[in-house]
Design goal:
Blueprint lengths: L1 H32 L6 H19 L7 H19 L6 H24 L4 E2 L3 H4 L1 E4 L2 E4 H23 L1 H11 L1 H6 L4 H26 L1 E2 L3 H16 L4 H21 L5 H15 L13
Antiparallel strand pairs: 1-4, 2-3
Helix pairs in contact: 1-6, 1-7, 1-9, 1-10, 1-11, 2-3, 2-4, 2-9, 2-10, 3-9, 6-7, 6-9, 7-9, 10-11, 10-12, 11-12
């Protein structure tokens, strides 16, 4: 039993890396535009299906799909920004309804193109078992966990040091004041969508490399990203990583000790418990950065 629990903790840790990439994209867009992008999970799923299309059609592994997934998802993110950016009044509620509709459209497009079958990667190299003492994982899980950490570190540096990163934080803090300082909020909002698309592309390829995908999975990914964002406290990159790992561990322990049917319930229960104990999230407002 002890070994099973330790393995569940290890698996949850690795899964948390992918969850963090998904949630960071949602958090960035919400921070700059106050828009909860309910189509974000579908963007992640789109990248996963791009990887599947290349593997099934050209026999190329998921890693080769990353450049194409970046282009496809970022272009879709630009189109999504152009649509959402036209909302001038009651942006929060109107964008919520609009992005939900766009998510439904993307789900049905995926259904039309790739059907409703469940798919998984057949790459033997990525699925090869890697053993560290009593812990087992696929090579793809370790690889993309490392990539997730690198991307989050790069995002942390970009938000803290680059002009666009500081401008994004300024717009997220006070849009009107940022505009008075010569910052173009529309351009910064576009940048936030592009960065969110970049993170979604990597997360989607990671999802396909070590899991299964189906067209209906997009909405579940959005819910997970929203839970992590609220658990972390909007604007906290370390908090997002901690919340993602916490969610991954909670799901892994639930599957190991109870039933896979309760996996989603475990996430929602964790969500409610943290809100009751820490209403500002794992990292309070005074500890947020970026």
């Amino acid at each position: 039993m002890t070994e099973l629990i330790l393995q569940a903790l290890y698996s949850g840790l690795l899964q948390g890396g992918s969850y963090a990439l998904i949630a960071l994209g949602l958090a960035l867009v919400f921070g700059t535009m106050k828009v909860i992008n309910l189509a974000h999970g579908e963007l992640v799923l789109l990248a996963a299906y791009v990887a599947y299309a290349l593997e099934s059609g050209l026999a190329l592994g998921p890693m080769y799909a990353i450049p194409i997934a970046l282009v496809v998802v970022c272009l879709t993110s630009i189109a999504l920004h152009q649509i959402v950016g036209r909302i001038k009044h009651d942006r929060e509620i109107n964008s919520l309804i609009l992005t939900y509709g766009i998510g439904v459209i993307l789900t049905n497009l995926i259904l039309l193109i790739w059907k409703a079958d469940v798919h998984a990667s057949g790459s033997l190299w990525l699925q090869e078992a890697i053993v560290f003492g009593p812990f087992y994982s696929m090579r793809s899980e370790l690889l993309f966990f490392g990539i997730s950490l690198l991307l989050m570190a790069a995002l942390w540096w970009w938000l803290a040091r680059s002009w666009y990163g500081r401008a994004l934080r300024a717009v997220a803090s006070n849009r009107d004041a940022a505009q008075l300082m010569g910052i173009n909020p529309g351009r910064i909002e576009l940048v936030s969508f592009l960065v969110a698309g970049l993170l979604a592309a990597f997360a989607g390829v990671a999802l396909f490399s070590h899991g299964v995908i189906s067209p209906a999975y997009g909405s579940a990914l959005t819910v997970k990203a929203f839970i992590i964002t609220v658990l972390a406290g909007v604007g906290s990159i370390p908090g997002v990583l901690a919340a993602a790992i916490l969610l991954g561990v909670a799901e892994a322990l639930t599957v190991t000790l109870a039933s896979s049917a309760l996996q989603e319930l475990a996430g929602m229960t964790l969500f409610l418990l943290v809100l009751l104990v820490l209403p500002n999230g794992l990292c309070g407002a005074q500890r947020r950065r970026g």
